[in-house]
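ok so I'm stuck.
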Amino acid sequence: MTDLLAGRPGGGASRGARVLGAASTAALVAASGLALATGRVKLFGISWIAFAAMAVAGWFGARAPRTHTGTLVWGYGLAAGAMITSAAVFLLPQAMGQHAVFGGFGVALGLLVGYGAHTLGHRLAHMDLPIDRALAELTAHAVSAGAIIGIVYGNMPELGPLLGVAIVSHKGPAGYAAVHRFTGRGGDPVAILLPAAGVGVAAVASSFLALPASGAVRGVVFGFATGVFLHVAMDFLPECEIGSEVHESLSREGDAHALLDRLRVHAVASTVLGGLAVFLAWSVVA
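replied:
not stuck anymore, here's the structure
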């Protein structure tokens, strides 16, 4: 198990990955049964969409060639555009509606906490962990995102499923990129089922947490959710710069500047289309 999660090859690693994947999926199935039994149908759908997005994208990531720059840019851009639009349109008004000032403080807190957690999380790279660092970060992120989604939907059940689907849209490109790196170091792609299931398990569990009726408290909570998701969305904006993940995935180093210039156009186009997709979906639903 340790060899698997640390991204090192080995026969026991593959067996451990399958055990881990099966256990994670079983936990999601159990959480899904609880969600349906208690009328949390929206969370049930969002949980499985997140699971499928990450698992399927991970499957493609494991088989992608080392030169997958265009796929990364479009995947990240579409997800970022969808998340930014959804957080601004569906969550921000809820936070401001609860309490304009405390809702604003909540947004600021979410952005700052998101940045702090992301920045300090990179210290894991300097620690000797029994699991792969990227997988550990992805799992922690999935669980925290799921917990926030559960609290939001548990206290605002009238919210439509479009918000949750758009919020978890980044799970696809995240799973793709993580498995692509993970398998390159000898890891088993089945391990992606751990963070894939973590979203739904955490969402269903946290949905039973009832917030106080105080407008200030609810404003901070919904503002915090908005800020966190905005931070995640902005972190997914494709960075076509020297030293970025996009740059590292380029196949030709000699004309890197020209390629990055071209990819910047794709980055802008993908983020705009991601936001437009949410607008069109909202127009149809509304």
